[in-house]
Amino acid sequence: MESKICASTIKFGNNIDTDVILPGKYLILVDPYELGKHALESLDTEFVNKAKDGVILIGGKNFGCGSSREQAPIALKYAGVKCVIAETFARIFYRNAINIGLPVIECPTISETIKTGDELSVDLETGKIQNLTNNKMVQGTILPPFVMEILTDGGLIENLRKRLNKK
Amino acid sequence: MNITEKILAKASDKKVVSPGDIVDTNVDVLMTHDLTGPLAVESFKKIGAEKVWDSQKIVIILDHQIPAESIKAAELHKTMRQFAKEQKIRVYDVGRGGICHQVMPDQGHVTPGTVIVGSDSHTCTYGAFGAFSTGIGSTEAAAVMTTGKIWFKVPQTIKINVNGSFAKYVTPKDLILNVIGKLGVDGAIYKSVEFAGLTIHEMSIAGRMTICNMAVEMGAKNGIIEPDNITKQYLQNKIKNMPDFLTLQSDIDAQYEQIIEFDVSKMEPQIACPSSVDNVKPISEINEIPIDQAFIGSCTNGRLEDLRLAAQILKGKKIKDGVRALIIPASQEIYKQALIEGLTEIFTDAGAIVCGSACGPCLGGHIGLLAAGETCISTSNRNFIGRMGSTQANVYLSSPAVVAASAVTGKITDPTNLEVKQ
Predict the structure, then answer these.
(1) Into which CATH architecture does domain A4-166 fall?
(2) A interface toward B at CB cutoff 8 Å?
(3) What is the mean pLDDT of residues A54-73?
């Protein structure tokens, strides 16, 4: 995975839960692209169209709260979300996103500094979030090295395969 | 150290841990179910491991979409059965178990002081027994299946001291809703919540499970209660080795990020209004809200104690015309007990439907879904938009007593007022 991500943003508020990211009725679907078709449809029926060419999602506090369903970050990833930046994340969602190779960055000031449609350049290694629309920069939290490694390997499956092969 | 820190230190072969430390932890039990399990199986196969780390330490429970309501769900169940057979893992199949968080302790998979992870966010329920338990995702479950280990950041801990006696028809559910209302849905994000105080230690295991179950609704990593004699009595014929509970007490000088006091003496029944679990109001502030559906069940409130309380209110009464009441025991064992005790007869006579044990309408995947514009009062744990069906439906959360009383009147009702009217 590349450590730099460039895309425009779609912004949501606080406490975006996994039931609105992907409703329970779709958990019987197994194809990730099928899951992606329903990402965030409860909040915005047009989200999938807006996201398909690649977007950075901006969230407020407690992004991804609720169910442990990994299908929620999978749906976002396959809908076209390249990265999620939020003030805080619900912990299971946060781990799930990293484990499936969807970059997540915590940034306490993100909601006040970014609006929908801003073009961002995000450096995962340094946590620097450059707003190309107004040329302002905000600093996100840097991931611990072993977590960054999971992400750069493309997720926990690839990371574990690599580690197990080394043994 | 506090109890959570002690458990994490022991499981990561360390003498001492502090909040912020990242620890590589040995897992004692991994639980997975029919909706998150198939993805875990797929990830396990992609990792390329042939055998799970310890087939005795993994439990598979089919509970979300049971009995299968669609061919897709049937395929998921088949995947889990096949995997269980290949790997010699215990599986609780349709009719043989019930809701995972009830089956786990009742079938002896929960021991105080152990580390339990499950691919379900309400895995935190087992903190009621003094275990460190938390929800994880499917791929992480596959990694645990492979290695038997998982990393954790040792959390800060909020201690919640509870004192006072509950008024009639006020329950542990009302307490936890009140706590979440005060702390907020992100009030304990990344943190541990330790419930303590006389009220907690006089509380039944069922009540403690309700409380720890909902710790995740304020973002907590785990909810936990120091094990005591009530824990011992509940588990003594269920688990092989009872640990020394003295090693599972928080030290007198244990560190807490915050200590918050609650007194339940004057607490009213609490209602979490749409569409956030922290949108909590005392029932006296709720105006007569008409309901279409009343649901008693889920891993939060489908226990025998909950059903008895509901039956006490519903005995000899009828569910209001135009309202449907669903009652789903948390396990098949509880289902059987409800039959033996005559509770099922009371429910059926009242006009409620009693279903076999499963997650039911709680997560909107299976039976009892809501149409647009409908309102449900539910004993479950989440009232998010679209959680129980239509995104245009409203879900209110409460205790089983309030749900039962509301089913009779057709609007959200304090059970005490129902008594007065008679």
Answers:
(1) Alpha-Beta Barrel (3.20)
(2) 14-15, 17, 19-20, 23-25, 27-30, 42-43, 61-62, 65-71, 88, 90-92, 95-96, 99-100, 144, 146, 155-157, 160-161, 164
(3) 97
